[in-house]
Amino acid sequence: ESAAEEPRMLCIIQDTTNSRMVNDRVTLNLPASTPLKQLFEDVAAKVGYVNGSFDLMWGNGDSVTDMTPIDQNSDKTILDAGFEPGKKNFLHLTDKDGEQPHVMQEESATAEDAPQERFIGPLPREGSMGCTNDYVSQSYSYSSVLSKSETGYVGLVNQAMTCYLNSLLQTLFMTPEFRNALYKWEFEESEEDPERSIPYQLQRLFVLLQTSKKRAI
């Protein structure tokens, strides 16, 4: 009877590491007494990732609002962790330590079938907005999808009908005068929030376009 009366938490998870699923939402309706450890296990089973290979962060459905990952090892329940009954609790599934989530392999798969590509390139500053999204699908191996194109150029992931913006960004990047001028600009962290500084985020994006070993960022 007490279990039936227990409040339930509606959790809506967005996978920000997968361009083909970035517009999809995974929904879980969990009892308020669910431990955080169990939350991660349920999410992993739902999305097909190896538990412990991804982080969960608070989000409002469109953007990350709290860059501090939820503590997977905490003994707290989701109620104690700040989840609210009767409301939509938005979460973002993100890279962990700059590394893509590991896709759960079929039982017949071997370790050789699932190479794990590590993020190569500048990592975000602690507390800053990450830009490590990749073009990755569970139906492909990491090695074929994440490796840099033979042309030597790095693409941009389409964040749902942003092809026009991606084209503009690539055009600016391929204009040496603009790119070099941007590289000479120095960010003053004491005067501006890095997450809201467009020149700083554009500078970071250009560095990734120039140095990343990934197919797309």
TrEMBL record:
Pfam families assigned to the protein according to its UniProt record, in alphabetical order: Ubiquitin_USP47_N (PF25985), UCH (PF00443)
Keywords attached to this entry: Hydrolase
Xref: InterPro entries: Papain-like_cys_pep_sf (IPR038765), Peptidase_C19 (IPR050164), Peptidase_C19_UCH (IPR001394), USP (IPR028889), USP_CS (IPR018200)
Hydrolase in keyword set: yes
Entry GO terms, CC: cytosol; nucleus
GO biological process, one term: protein deubiquitination
Span of domain USP: 154-217
GO MF annotations, alphabetized: cysteine-type deubiquitinase activity
UniProt-recorded name of the protein: UBP47 hydrolase
